[in-house]
Specification:
By secondary structure, the protein is α/β, with parallel strands linked by helices. It has 12 helices and 12 strands. The chain has a 9-stranded mixed sheet. Strands 10-11-12 form a 3-stranded antiparallel sheet, with no helix packed on it. The structure holds iron/sulfur cluster.
Length: 367
Amino acid sequence: MSVVKPIVQTMTATVAARTLRSGAALAAAGLIDPAEAAAADAAARTLPIAITPEIAALIDVTDADDPIARQFVPDPRELERRDEERTDPIGDGANSPLSGIVHRYPDRVLLMPAMTCPVYCRFCFRRDGVGPEGGTLSEAELDAALDYIRSHDEIREVILSGGDPLMLSPRRLGAIVAALDAMARIEIIRIHTRVPVADPGRITDKLIAALGAGTALYVVLHCNHPRELAPAAREAVRALVDSGIPMLSQTVLLKGVNDDADTMEALMRALVRNRIKPYYLHHADLARGTGHFRTTIAAGRALMGSLRGRISGLCQPSYVLDVPGGFGKARLGPIDLEDAGADTFRVTDWRGGTHDYPAAAGDAKAD
Ligand code: SF4
């Protein structure tokens, strides 16, 4: 049975027209020197350029190290390839039984109806698949993907990802949500998006109505810097949350963007202030041409450790790594407990003080 039409709608005309998509456009907007335009276009052959007016307005052109520009303005280093980097760093392909589906864990599945985005993030882990030419599911492919979800009794949660699912028209998005809502077994629908910060004008009453479902539906905002939560973005978030949609966040740990405790603290506080619960802090994946964004894991753990004393548990994300090859997420800690000999654990408090804690009978202790 055909449930929904083939997808993807164009961006709102005004935003689409004003989105910067070439080195020349970046130069004309003052975001790069005209002499850098050709290099930007060369990098764009690995991942298209798209910078919406809202994102462009956040860039401080007087700051050569601006953390917003760093995320969206192409860098010649994207052409550098490191041995450990991969075209499919988290192994989507190894877990994709059919187009648009990634089934990595038994109880949940990724559904990727479109691979377009409002902006193209230079560190994207799917940079070899996203873009205006990244493709959308045909009507038949989408029906097959929904049939796959319908026919797998173990699936309880569907995560709409891509690309950015909120690039779909409200009508088409609503048809997908309705199709999932009609599957009694599905308990959670999750939508991962950058739209509220990159193109907040898309969060309209119509789009919010399309997300109305009897099934619990969460929107997970991809946000990497506190300045991304500008007034229009906050208004879009407010509209979503006021409609009853709970929001979570995911952040990518990025060198020169948010890899210092002050910025990360400000981001996490801003998210919670706007009623978004921080969910994941992702260690940057081994996507090709993104080495200049990656920190060490030791630096990430130290950053998480320093956050512990600065912000409440409500503000703390879980620091995770997607294991290359498609083996899912691993939590990177740090944890505050270690073995301290027979019958004793050693716990570390937020100031770094250590304390012995008695192991109960049956506590597993390492040898
Ligand atoms: S919005 Fe997400 S999928 Fe799209 S380019 Fe950015 S990180 Fe990649």
